[in-house]
C-alpha cells in the first residue's frame, strides 16, 4: 500500500486512474509492475517534466492543461496523454515568447536517454520507450502487483 501511495503521490495520479493503469498493465505482455511504471512514465505531463520544460510534475500538468504543448503538431491539453516512440513534442508556436519558455533557451538539461529536447527550438522527441532502468525512482513495483493481485 505504501509503495502504491508513493507512486500515486510522485506522479500525481488519483486512485481510479491508477487502478486503470494497473488493469492495462496486467493485460499486457511482460512483468506487470514494470509495464505499469513504464506506462505511467509515458504520460505527457511526466514527459514535459523529464524534458525540463516544467519544474515539477504539477507545473508540467498545468502547462499541458493550458494548451502550451503540441504533440506531432497538434495541441494536446490532456496530461494523461500517452506518448509513443517517435512522437515530436514542442511548445506551441504562439507560446514560445512566454517568460517561462524564454528562460529555457540555451540551457543544457539532463534528461533520460529515451528523450531528447532542443532548448533553442523548443522541440523534443521520444527516441524510444522508457525501460525500467530509465526510471530513477526507488519503487518496488512488485509490492504494488502483490497488493492488487489479492
Features:
5 strands, 150 residues, five-stranded antiparallel beta sheet, single chain, alpha+beta, 7 helices
Description:
The protein is an alpha+beta fold. It is 41% helix and 11% strand. The protein contains 7 helices and 5 strands; from the N terminus they run αααααβββαββα. It has a 5-stranded antiparallel sheet, with helices on one face. α3 packs across α7 and α4 crosses α5. It is elongated and about 50 Å long.
Short description:
With 150 residues, the chain is of the alpha+beta class. It has seven helices and five strands; from the N terminus they run αααααβββαββα.
Residue windows where pLDDT falls under 50 for at least 5 positions: none
* Global mean pLDDT: 88
In whole angstroms, the N-to-C terminal distance is 12 Å
Largest sheet: 5 strands, antiparallel
Q: Enumerate how many helices there are, as a single number.
A: 7
User: Cα-atom Rg, whole angstroms?
Assistant: 16 Å
Write the H/E string, N to C: HHHHHEEEHEEH
Helix content: 40-55%
Helices and strands, with pairings:
Blueprint: H1 2-11, H2 15-27, H3 32-41, H4 44-51, H5 57-65, E1 69-71, E2 74-75, E3 88-91, H6 99-102, E4 115-118, E5 123-126, H7 141-148
Antiparallel strand pairs: 1-2, 1-3, 3-5, 4-5
Amino acid at each position: 500500500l505504501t509503495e502504491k501511495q508513493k507512486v500515486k503521490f510522485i506522479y500525481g495520479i488519483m486512485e481510479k486512474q491508477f487502478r486503470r493503469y494497473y488493469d492495462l498493465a496486467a493485460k499486457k505482455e511482460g512483468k506487470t509492475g514494470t509495464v505499469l511504471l513504464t506506462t505511467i512514465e509515458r504520460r505527457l505531463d511526466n514527459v514535459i517534466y523529464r524534458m525540463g520544460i516544467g519544474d515539477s510534475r504539477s507545473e508540467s500538468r498545468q502547462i499541458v492543461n493550458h494548451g502550451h504543448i503540441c504533440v506531432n503538431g497538434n495541441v494536446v491539453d490532456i496530461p494523461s496523454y500517452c506518448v509513443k516512440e517517435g512522437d515530436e513534442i514542442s511548445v506551441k508556436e504562439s507560446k514560445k515568447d512566454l517568460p517561462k519558455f524564454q528562460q529555457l533557451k540555451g540551457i543544457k538539461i539532463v534528461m533520460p536517454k529515451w528523450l531528447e529536447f532542443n532548448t533553442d527550438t523548443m522541440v523534443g522527441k521520444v527516441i524510444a520507450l522508457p525501460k525500467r532502468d530509465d526510471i530513477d525512482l526507488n519503487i518496488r513495483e512488485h509490492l504494488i502487483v502483490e497488493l492488487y493481485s489479492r
